[in-house]
Amino acid sequence: MSKLPLPPGSTIGILGGGQLGRMLALAAGRLGFDVAILEPEPGAPATRVAAHTVVGAYDDPQALEALSKLASVVTFEFENVPASSVEHLTALGVAVAPGARALAIAQDRVAEKTFLNEAGVATVAFAAADTAQAAQDAMASLGAPVLMKTRREGYDGKGQRWVEHAADAPAAFKAVGAKPVILEAPANFVRELSVIAARGRGGEIAVYPLAENHHEKGVLRRTYAPAKVTGETADQAERIAAKVLSGLDYVGVIGIELFELADGRLLVNEIAPRVHNTGHWTMDGCEVDQFEQHIRAVAGWPLGPTHAHSQVEMLNLLGEEADAWAKLAGEPETRVHLYGKRDAKPGRKMGHVNRLRPL
Ligand code: AMP
After folding, report:
1. Mean pLDDT across the chain
2. Which of 33, 86, 62, 117 is nearest to 273 (CA)?
3. Is 187 in the pocket of ligand 1 (CB under 6 A)?
4. What is the 119 CA–ligand 1 centroid distance (Å)?
5. CA–CA separation, 261 vs 101, rounded Å?
6. Is 189-357 the same fold as 11-96?
7. Of ligand 1's atoms, which has the minimum distance to the CA of residue 257?
């Protein structure tokens, strides 16, 4: 493993070449690093701002070896990187941050909620089921309705459905793909919040102010941050972030999605072991944004301040909405971030804007 802190001029490897990889690469560049992207799709957003690209599957041994020769440390921009790839890189002598454990836990909704509860962090009540019959049986103890989600590889509300009666569980099981599922009790939340936090190589923790998130059709639409919350809610979020980060012996930035209940309690919905869409507001609202913070953490640099200096409304630009770039760029309060994607398919995240107001 390379000596830390990693000096400027070193190369940081990133698994994944989407917009998160691109914004990580841009932040790394500001600190004097080069990046090497491993990504199956030539020309993906991050590859066009990177010094090096290895085109290959995430589990291709040759591609991983090529990356290991270029990079002093490796990180990832999405949580569905195969755990075996992280093990392979580690065996080749390259440190991967966050580590294999955080990845494995975040890839499985049952492992995730089990870890959270063991770490003293509250979630909705849940049960695991591997068969249609087990799903129906589990509803006898959990009650109805439940939200059925595939244990793995669900995102943006995909692979999920509400089940109103136990008798409907087998059909729902089939509809989500007849794969192992988690059944979740409903969270009767008043708001969806998230907290972005970071942990450094020495175990130090930095937490951003809470963000309030609004989704449409399962996709994040808007974030308002810093969210208007009580001091007690902010303290609760900080305690949750500290328990999660320390419990995972984590290095890097994490996104923690929260449900705020009417009585003020926060439940964790899920954790994303990476920079997060609900943290994009930090690019223009905070002294050091989530992307630079992640690079600092994995490179063993001191973490930066997370204090907000502006009130931000972050709006995702989906599909053709990004075509309005000229108008948006003409709004003095608006900062435009475009991901360089060539194909504006409906609903695809093409960019985002941060609209600023004084705090
Ligand atoms: P997820 O894929 O787990 O992030 O869930 C996507 C969205 O579904 C969340 O942002 C919530 O709006 C909603 N949701 C997820 N889990 C629950 C739950 N247990 N109760 C109520 N709503 C939920």
Report:
1. 96
2. 86
3. yes
4. 21
5. 29
6. no
7. 4
pLDDT tens digit sequence for 99-116 = 999 999 999 999 999 999
> What is the fold, at CATH topology level, of the domain defined by 11-96?
Rossmann fold (3.40.50)
For residue 336, the CA-to-ligand 1 centroid distance in Å is: 29
Residue 40 alpha carbon to ligand 1 centre in Å: 30
Give the Cα separation of 292 and 301 in Å (integer). Answer: 10
Q: How far is the CA of 218 from the centre of ligand 1 (A)?
A: 8
Chain segment 218-258, per-residue pLDDT in tens: 899 999 999 999 999 999 999 999 999 999 999 999 999 99
Q: Could you state, in order of their start, the residue ranges of all structural domains in the chain?
A: 11-96, 125-184, 189-357
The CATH number of the structural domain formed by 189-357 is: 3.30.470.20
Mutational test site, ligand 1, from 112, 164, 269, max ligand atoms within 8 Å of CB = 269
Strands 211-216 and 160-163: unpaired
Atom of ligand 1 lying closest to residue 186 CA: 20
d(CA 115, CA 111): 6
- 159 Cβ contact partners less than 8 Å away, ≥ 6 residues apart: 149, 150, 153, 176, 177
* 269 Cα–ligand 1 center, Å: 7
Instruction: Say yes or no: domain 125-184 is CATH 3.20.20.150.
Output: no
Asked if pLDDT for residue 2 goes beyond 80, the answer is no
